[in-house]
Amino acid sequence: MKQLFLILAIFLLPLAANAVNPGEILKDPVLEKRARAISKGLRCVVCQNQSIDDSDAQLARDLRVLVREQLVAGDSDQAVVDYVVSRYGDFVLLRPPVKAATLVLWFGPVVIALIGAMGLVLFFRRQKRYAAEINKEVGE
Amino acid sequence: MIVEIGHFALILALFVAALQGTLSMIGTHRRDASLMAIAAPAALVQLALVMLSFAALTWAFVTSDFSVLNVAQNSHTAKPMLYKISGVWGNHEGSMLLWALVLALYGGAIAAFGNNLRPSLKVRVLGVQALIATGILAFVLLTSNPFLRLSPAPVNGNGLNPLLQDPGLAFHPPLLYLGYVGLSITFSFAVAALIEGRVDTAWARWVRPWTLAAWGFLTAGIVLGSWWAYYELGWGGWWFWDPVENASFMPWLAATALLHSAIVSEKRDTLKSWTIFLAIIAFALSLLGTFLVRSGVITSVHAFASDPTRGVFILLLLVVTIGGAFALFAWRGPSLKGSGLFQPISREGGLLLNNFLLMVAAASILLGTLYPLFIDVLELGKVSVGAPYFESVFIPMMIPMILVMGIAPFLKWKRGNISSASGQLKIAAMITVIGGGLSWLIIDRANALAAFGIALAIWLFVATLIELAGRVKLFRVPFSDSIKRLLRQPRASWGMTLAHAGLAIAIAGMTASSAWRVEKIQVMKFGDSVDVAGYTYTLNSVNEFLGPNYKATRGRFSVTRGDSFSLVLQPEKRVYSTRGMSTTEAAIHPTFLGDLYAVVGDRDKKSGGYITRLYFNPLVPWMWAGSLIMVLGAGISLSDRRHRIGAPAKSKIVPRGAPAE
Amino acid sequence: MNRLMYYVPLVLLGILAVYFSAGLGRNPATLESVLINQQVPEFSLPPIEGSSKGIAKVDLKDQVVLVNIFGSWCKACWIEHPFLIDLKEKGVVPVYGINWRESNRQAGPRWLKKFGDPYTLIGDDPKSKGAIAFGVSGAPETFFVNKHGIIRYKHMGPITEQNWNDTLKPILEALRKE
């Protein structure tokens, strides 16, 4: 295991620059824009927490090239992403997919907000009741 | 010898802390004055011992004593002195010692400056603080001892990661720790109050300056980290929703909520259990952050070398400390009834809404940060949660918050009346719409969201200033009168105005730099020119030379704009001798409207030119300026004399038109 | 009811603590393969210099094989190398190699010449096409493919005497029975 970390460490040289090289840039600006957008959503699996667009690692570079080649060959954005996901799993998506296992993730914030809102409502109701009690006492 | 003294001092500090903690709690329980009298001196002794220990470690680094394992692992004779010193906290063990130092520092500050506190409260606060310190010091001594010797001592050390050899990053951990370790004091206040069974307006008033201090430092620390990332990582990014960044951001959100909730508790004797809860949560998030960075459960660029045994210890610390606090909360919380009532539309309501949004945001970020761990433990596969998730969750929650931030200062306490402020708010709204519309029309019609972000920033800025103008009765009384009123505003209200205005400026910067960045990547040969946002960059030359511990390739750009503007930018790419790592040193020139940002990359063998990355990052200086203004606001608020005055003088008449805070 | 609400933070903390302790033993960086129990992906790699045949998907059928990702730059590959040579000499199982990301065409062949060649077939993969097809994130990695061309197991890190005897050999024997 430690050796694996050593190997992975070799790839941790990145952090040198936003990594797209001029040689990788496609001639068609529309395709290049798509490539950049897709790259920004794919995690560099040999880095700690970067997209393949940001990482200088060699595998990231090769994945960038692969994405561009597939776009030039006419694949749709979704097809390119699906290809990479079919190889590396959902882990490679920086934006987690919406599926059964991630429902809690995507709907969690909404649920938390609703619970909080309910708490606020209950709080104000209690305040009103308390105020009414005081008024009753005062009135008596 | 000095190292041994430092080691011994640390052990002594542990014993002092343990004594301070237990005797303080026993003493206050028994109302034994002589036991209680130990607390403050013990806190000061503890501080002195930890300072001595820290000084000893610093000495070892400064003198490059490689017989100390920690120094051998993290330092090198070729390192400049500033980085030898910052190397003390640039590693796990040293940074934990810094943690312990800041903890002791806040305890000592209470001991020395907390003379206006109710004695039993003061002793209990010092007691809780000491108990936390006992845990942390034990952690350091048992699992992360920086004073371990190495025999035989190597001739030279392993050198520090070159990325950490940087002035910005040198000061980032101390500031950050003064921030989120500072939240330990508000935690101690909360636990002490729970033990006492008494949370009153005096308590809330005493907590405020400490919260302000911690919050101010934390803001500065986070911003410094972002600033470092911006100029060091080579392309102008400044926030990545990395788990460790989130680990410092969540306490910040909770601390902001606490700051505002404490105001309500102080002024209106309500929301007491909520404020206590926030104080506990804020420090819990700090401890959680410490756990996440050092235990290895989460992948991150920032993580120190992960070690499960350390993780177990910190987890235990977290469970005992926070679990204990939450247990107390469950027991005492229900009896903390307040007396202040208020309508939903009121100053309190606005602050409560602010709290609600901040804490839902913090909870969402927590969910996203911890989700990969949950999924992995439940064996449901591996999922990664990156920036796209956090942005889509966080930003929508901030929109209502910024809107409310503009309105709330206008609302009165207890029962606010929007219609009385509607005239002023309408002016602010008009300016906002015009400003947002203009930015949409002029800058980028394709990006309505960005214009909306700018509009929000304008709203907050204008509404904040109009509120201030209202308080000084600008244009309604002679100007000199307004000035007089301005100078008489309490400093705490200056704090609010500055903090909110600063945030607005920062938001404008964040929006613009994310949405409208101009990027040009190409291979340039000498003499080639590229246009970036109206500026012409010409590559003149590229030279190689040797630095103190690296080899550098430096490019020279002359940048012009029309006839009037001319500048030379010299970005570098460095390769460090000891670890073979490389860094980019971007050349950055701030202007009022944005940064000119140039990076020189590798040589392109085919053409003989160099890869260059040239950027224009709009309004980035506004992010830094806005954040500094926020920190300034905290400082000014802290200097308010009312924080230093003793028990509330009941006879004080609150002047009419008392400024809102 | 209201009183119970005050216990919620404590309960949530407890749940979190359980997750954290479970998480402490795990490694968040390892990427389990999503290709387990799937067909070998489409791929085709040219031969390395000095060889006439590369590897492609069609070669991975009719018998149980190991596919090993390696490179002359990969220090851990040096560790497992003698063991792979041993496997070849004893004729235990054919090992096909994917020579990943060499800096030039000679680096791989030269290394193999110097230290021995344990591979029955080798593909040259300078641009990571093969590695990406297999979802590789580091070297060395070894895939166990059965005779129907289905990937049954992925081993990350070097193969050693110990993990071979403990884990990998039993997997190999099970595969032979399929």
Describe this structure in words.
- The complex is a heterotrimer of chains A (140), B (661) and C (178).
- By secondary structure, chain A is mainly α.
- Chain A folds into two domains: 1-97, Cytochrome C biogenesis protein (Helicase, Ruva Protein, domain 3), CATH 1.10.8.640; 98-140.
- Chain A contains five helices and no strands.
- In chain A, helix 2 packs across helix 3 (58-72).
- The model of chain A is unreliable at 1-17 (pLDDT under 50).
- By secondary structure, chain B is of the alpha+beta class.
- Among the domains of chain B are: 1-153, Four Helix Bundle (Hemerythrin (Met), subunit A) (Up-down Bundle); 415-516 and 624-641, no CATH class; 518-620.
- Chain B has 20 helices and ten strands.
- Chain B has helices spanning 2-30, 33-36, 39-62, 69-74, 81-86, 92-113, 119-143, 167-180, 183-196, 201-232, 243-268, 272-295, 308-332, 347-377, 387-407, 418-442, 448-471, 479-488, 491-515, 620-638, and strands spanning 518-524, 529-532, 535-546, 550-561, 565-569, 572-576, 582-585, 587-591, 594-603, 610-618.
- The model of chain B is unreliable at 646-661 (pLDDT under 50).
- Chain C is of the alpha/beta class and 178 residues long.
- Chain C has one domain (29-176): Glutaredoxin.
- Chain C has six helices and eight strands, in the order H-H-E-E-E-E-H-E-H-E-H-E-E-H.
- Chain C is elongated.
- Chains in contact: A-B, A-C, B-C.
- Chain A binds chain C through residues 1, 3-8, 10-11, 45-46, 58-59, 62-63, 65-66, 84, 86-89, 91, and chain C through 27, 29-35, 41, 73-76, 79, 101, 127-129, 131-135, 137-140, 156-158.
Tell me briefly what this model is.
The complex is a heterotrimer of chains A (140), B (661) and C (178). With 661 residues, chain B is of the alpha+beta class.
How much of the residues of chain B is beta strand, in percent?
A: 5-15%
What's the order of the H and E elements of chain A? HHHHH
Count of discrete domains of chain A? 2
Alpha plus pi helix count of chain B: 20
- What name does the CATH topology of the domain at 1-153 in chain B carry? Four Helix Bundle (Hemerythrin (Met), subunit A)
Number of helices of chain A: 5
Q: Determine Rg of chain A (CA atoms, Å).
A: 25 Å
**SS-based class of chain B:** alpha+beta
Tell me the overall shape of chain B.
globular
